[in-house]
Design a protein that fits this description.
It comes from Streptomyces osmaniensis. Helices cover about 20% and strands about 35% of the residues. By secondary structure, it is an alpha/beta fold.
Length: about 120
Amino acid sequence: MITDVDHVQLAAPPGSEERLRTYYVGVLGMTEIPKPPVLAARGGCWFRAGGVQLHLGIEKDFRPADKAHPGLRVAGIERYGARLQAQGARVEWDENLPGHRRFYSRDPVGNRLEFLEPLTAV
């Protein structure tokens, strides 16, 4: 029986780690977590915010997915969206999910990210 999501893995091109750190730590406010040494040798980086982990692994022939994305819950979505825009990230609001306020953005290598907040307590 599945009990929880441990992490979400996204791909990134070789040599993009510093851009990823700038975005995921500096813009999104996540914390970088160390990878085990055997995995660190492969490149990439891991990040955490609360109970959410995003792992970015290096893929030689990387191409960002057009549709696939993690959905990340946030508190204070209006302020959070403004924070991303102030840091130069593009924010695309979408009103099509009933009961939620949400937007999409892309990381510096083109991965699509969804940010959402329920309009009522869950």
